[in-house]
Amino acid sequence: MGSAVTQRLAASPATLIFTARGIRSFGDGLISLVLPAYLLELGYGALATGMIATATLLGSAILTLLAGASTGRAPVKTLLSGAAVLMTLTGMGFATIGDFWPLVLIAFVGTLNPSSGDVSVFLPLEQAELAGVVSNRDRIRQFARYSFIGSVMAAVGALAAGLPGRAADFFGIDSKFGLQGAFLVYASLGLIVLAIYRSLPVTRDQGGFRQGPLLVQSRQIVLGLAALFSLDAFAGGFVVQSLLALWLFEKFDLSLATAGLIFFWTGVLSAFSYFIAARVADRFGLLNTMVFTHLPANVCLVLTAFAPSLGTAVALLLLRSALSQMDVPTRTSYVMSIVPKDERPAAASVTAVPRSLAAAVSPMLSGALLAISTFGWPVIFAGGLKMPTTCSCSSSIARSPSSRTYSALCPLMALSGHFWTASLLQRLLMTQSRPNQDRLALSHAWVRL
C-alpha cells in the first residue's frame, strides 16, 4: 500500500522528500502543543516540561551526530528509515507511559520535537539527500520549497492540536485519553514516512563506502559555521513552541484549541516569509534582508513579555513570525553549496548538532523561569540574546577585500547578531585553505549577498 501511494505521488526523489517532510512536520506541530498540555494533565509543571524539552533536544543532537558519522558507511535512505521506526516507537512510548523519568528517557532517545522548527535527526539527512537530487541552479528554490512545506504542515498540525480535546468531549472520555491518541497519531505518521523513505533510490555507490575522515576539504568552514549557528539556537531554546505555548496557557489561561489557532497563523506567516524574502533580497540584498528582518522580529519577541492582553501578545507574535525565518532556505543552501557532495551528509549533521546542543540547554532554564513567574522572562532572554550589542568585526574588515562595504555596515553590526555572524563568516572564508583566487571569489560572492 505504501509503495502504491508513493508511486502515485511522483517518481521524483525530491517530491518524496517533500512529502515526508510535510507529514513529519504535521506530527511535530501537533505534538509541540499537545506535549505541554499532556504533561499538565499528568500533573507535571513548567520545570518538568522544560526538562523533557531539554532531553529531547539533547538526544536529537547526539542522534544526529551518530547519523552523520554513519553516512560514510550506510546509505542515507537506510538512516532515514531507521529514524522513521524510532519516530513510531517514540509516539507509542508517550501514549502508554505516564511516569516522569521514563518519559524523559523516551524523549532523550526518541524523535519528539518541542519547537516549531525541525531540529530532529531527519533534517540533516533529508537536506543532504535533497541536495544530491537537485541541480545547483535549482538548489535555493528547492530548499525554499522544502522549508515552506515544513512550516505550512507544522502550522496545520498545530491547528489540529485542539482535536484531541474535542474528541474526548464527543466520546465522553477523559481528556488524557484524547491527548494520548495524539501520540498514537504521531506513531502512525512514522509508519507512513517509513514507507516513503523506503521508496527513495539509494544514492550512494554500492561498491564500498568511504572510510576516511568524514570532513576533509570542508572541515574548517563547517566547524566554524557550526559554532556560529549554535549562538542563535541557544537563545531560541528559551522559546521553543512547547514552552511558548505553556507560557500562554498559564499567563492568559489559554485553551489548547485557541493556542493551536494562534500557532497555525504564526506557522503560515513563517512559511510565506520564505518566498517574500527572495523578493526582498533581490531588491535590498540578502545580508540586509536577514538583518533588518531579524532585529525587529526580536524586538517584538521582547515586547511580548510586556503585552497587557492576549490580543497584543498574539499581534506581536504574528509580526515576529512574519519576519524571523527569512534566512532559513538560503542559509541551508549555502551550507550545502560550500562542501563537496560526498561530505554533505556529515556537514549537515555537524552544523545541526551544535544547534541542538545549544538549544537543549535553554529549555530547562526557561521551564525554571516559568515555574517561578509567568511574567515572560523566557521571551525577554530569547529576544535579548538574539540582539547582541558587541561584535568583533575589526579584524575581518581589515582582511576583507571589500573593506569599504563592511566599514559602512560596521555600526549596524553592533545591533545584530547576524551582522556579527556575517563578519565571522567572512573571516572563515578568507582563511579557508583554498587557492587565493578561490578565496577572493568566495569573499566577493558573500559580500554581494
Question: What does it look like?
Answer:
This protein is mainly alpha-helical and 449 residues long. The protein contains 21 helices and no strands. The N and C termini lie far apart (46 Å).
Shape from CA axes?
globular
Structural class by secondary-structure content: mainly alpha
Spans where pLDDT lies below 50 across 5 or more residues: 204-213, 389-449
- CATH homology superfamily of the largest domain: MFS general substrate transporter like domains
Number of strands: 0
The topology string of helices and strands comes to HHHHHHHHHHHHHHHHHHHHH
Instruction: Name the CATH class of the largest domain.
Output: Mainly Alpha
CATH architecture type of the largest domain: Up-down Bundle
N-end to C-end Cα span: 46 Å
Radius of gyration: 21 Å
Largest sheet at a glance?
Answer: none
Report the sheet-strand fraction.
under 5%
At CATH level 3, the topology of the largest domain is Growth Hormone, Chain: A
Rounded mean pLDDT is 78
Number of helices: 21
How many domain units? 2
Helix content: over 70%
